Amino acid sequence: MDERRIAVVVEDDADIRVLLAAVLAQSGFEVHVAKTGWEGVALVQAHAPDLVTLDVGLPDIDGFEVVRRVRLRNMDVHIVVLTARSDEIDAVQALEIGADLYMTKPFRPRELRAHVEAMMRRRKKRGSAPPLGPVPPLEPVSPLNSVSPLGPGSSPSFPAPGFSSPGSAPPVVPVSPLGPVPLPDTIPVDQPQMLELNGLVLNPCEYSVSVDGAAVVLTPSEFLLLHVLLAGGRLVRSKADLARFLRGESFDSGTLVMPADERAVEVHVGNLRRKLGDRTREPRWIETVRGVGYRAAPVH
C-alpha cells in the first residue's frame, strides 16, 4: 500500500477547487482545501504537505506571497502554480520565489496528474525531508519583496531519513573531470553517493547541500538540478534535457520541450547560483556552455 500523501489546494474558484481536489484524491492524496491565501498558509503549517497547488489571484494575498510564506515553512514541499496569467514575467516571478511548476488555466487534468506523479516518484526515490522546524506565527502581509531569500547558512541541513547513525553516511565522491558519475533519471537512495566539488558537498540521502561547511537550503527542483549536473561531471546537459529530467522523463526521450520549459530551467539555475553564491563568469560549481546548456565547473 502506498504511503500517505498530503496535498493542499489553494483556490478561490469553487469549481476549480472541487476539480483539483478530485484529481488529487484520485492520485491517492489526502486533500485539504483553502479559499484564501491565509487559509492555505495555515493548512501548510498544520499538515506539512507533500504538494501545494495554488492560484495567483486570491481574494486576500496573492499567490506569490503564499509561495514565499510556504517556502519559509517547508522547503521540501512541491509547489504547483495554476493560474490564468500567461505572461512570462508572472511565470518567472513564481519560479524565482520557489515554485516548482507553473501551469496556465485552463489546464488538462491528465497533464497535471502526470506532472504530480513524476514529482512524487522522485520524492519516493530520495525520501522526503521534514519542514524547517519552528516558524514564527502568521503576521499581516508585508510588502511584496520584503521576505529575505534563503541562502547559505540560513538553516540547518535536513536530517537523514533512515540514516541517523553517524557511521552510515555515504562516501564522498569528488566530481570527476573526465566523465559523469552514473545517474539514472531518478535519484537513487539505495546506493547513495555524496558528491563534492570545490567546497560544495551534496548528500542525496540526507537531502542536504553545504558550501564550505555552511548549509544551503534548496527547493526540490533546485536540488535535483544540482545533483544531476554534479553527477554529470563535465558532461553538458541541454536545457531541454534538464526540463525532461524535471518532468521525470529520460534525457533522450525526445518528448516536446516548450520554450517556457527551458526558461523554467534557466530560472531554477539562476536561483541555484544565487543561493550558492556562484558567479556566471567565474563559476565554482555550475558552468554555462553558451547555446548548449550547463555542466559542472572544473575542479579548482
UniProtKB/TrEMBL annotation:
GO terms for molecular function: phosphorelay response regulator activity; transcription cis-regulatory region binding. Residues 192-298 form the OmpR/PhoB-type domain. Signal peptide: none annotated. Residues 119-171 are annotated as: Disordered. The keyword DNA-binding applies. InterPro entries: CheY-like_superfamily, OmpR/PhoB-type_DNA-bd, Sig_transdc_resp-reg_C-effctor, Sig_transdc_resp-reg_receiver, WalR-like, WH-like_DNA-bd_sf. Residues 141-167 have a biased composition (Low complexity). Residues 192-298 bind DNA. Residues 131-140 have a biased composition (Pro residues). Residues 6-120 form the Response regulatory domain. GO terms for cellular component: cytosol; protein-DNA complex. CDD domains: REC_OmpR, trans_reg_C. SMART domains: REC, Trans_reg_C. The modification 4-aspartylphosphate is found at residue 55. Keywords: DNA-binding, Phosphoprotein, Transcription, Transcription regulation, Two-component regulatory system. GO terms for biological process: regulation of DNA-templated transcription. This is OmpR-like protein. It comes from Zafaria cholistanensis.
